[in-house]
Amino acid sequence: ELPPSEFMQVADSTWLVLNVVSNGREPSGCQATGVTKIARSVIAPLAEHHVSVLMLSTYQTDFILVRERDLPVVIHTLAGEFDIYREESGECVPVTCDDVSNGFLKPKPPASPTLHPVQSPQTRFCVLTVAPDTLPAIATMLIDVLFYSHSPPWDAATGSQDLDSITFFSFSLIEGYISIVMDAETQKRTGELWRMVRIGGQPLGFDECGIVAQIAEPLAAADISAYYISTFNFDHALVPEEGIAEVIQLLQQRQESGR
């Protein structure tokens, strides 16, 4: 419904949403383990088949966005381990490989995936949810924080931001559930705090595959919780504050082993 604008950049792909559930129930948001739960079973196989994904973690569960044109590859890749359904008029209808077999070609994987640099700002973040009926009361505050809060200096010449402190605010409203990520100073409350790892020294684009897998797999192997948010330019993994040193060490080892 947004009108065309020269100030708005739109990706040239249409994306579909995958949601992984266990025994017909979505994972509970009480103990967020995030993308690491599906790293080996979903993200890694899709990366091996050269499928680019966008990740969106929420307080309640995680969503994987795939390009519509990649759906045949996605179905063929995941059908061996998962029962796959599509939603039609609110009902879940089983999907088989035969439903999307037309034109299926297994893509050739890239010769060697790009290992992107990671940075970890000192900013501490909170992950929270609010009741939908409170949204009108806090809408003005959310708009103020999202669009008008103070931002660290941005160097337009280098396209870089001072990563000692990074401005990051995420708001999602999915099926009535609201998830918010904001820095701890804005939130002004105690509780579980998260630190960020930002992936990519330059904007990543949408054509490359395996970026999420490169981060999620080593964290999953170390049983480290992660909350992963893909954005238009960069990917962001949030991990519990007490585990940030181990995360940085794991990702540095990944970088060194890939050289």
TrEMBL record:
Q: Name one GO biological process term.
A: negative regulation of TORC1 signaling
One GO location term (cellular component): cytosol
What keywords are assigned to this protein? Cytoplasm, Phosphoprotein, Ubl conjugation
Q: Which residues form the CASTOR ACT domain?
A: 11-78, 192-252
In alphabetical order, the GO MF annotations are: arginine binding; identical protein binding
* Localization per record: Cytoplasm, Cytosol
Which residue range or ranges hold the Cytosolic arginine sensor for mTORC1 subunit 1/2 ACT-like domain?
116-189
Pfam families documented for this protein: ACT_7, CASTOR1_ACT-like
What biological function has been recorded for the protein in this entry?
Functions as an intracellular arginine sensor within the amino acid-sensing branch of the TORC1 signaling pathway. As a homodimer or a heterodimer with CASTOR2, binds and inhibits the GATOR subcomplex GATOR2 and thereby mTORC1. Binding of arginine to CASTOR1 allosterically disrupts the interaction of CASTOR1-containing dimers with GATOR2 which can in turn activate mTORC1 and the TORC1 signaling pathway.
Q: Which PANTHER family match?
A: CHROMOSOME 1, WHOLE GENOME SHOTGUN SEQUENCE, CYTOSOLIC ARGININE SENSOR FOR MTORC1 SUBUNIT 1
Record-given protein name:
Cytosolic arginine sensor for mTORC1 subunit 1
- Name the species this protein comes from: Polioptila caerulea
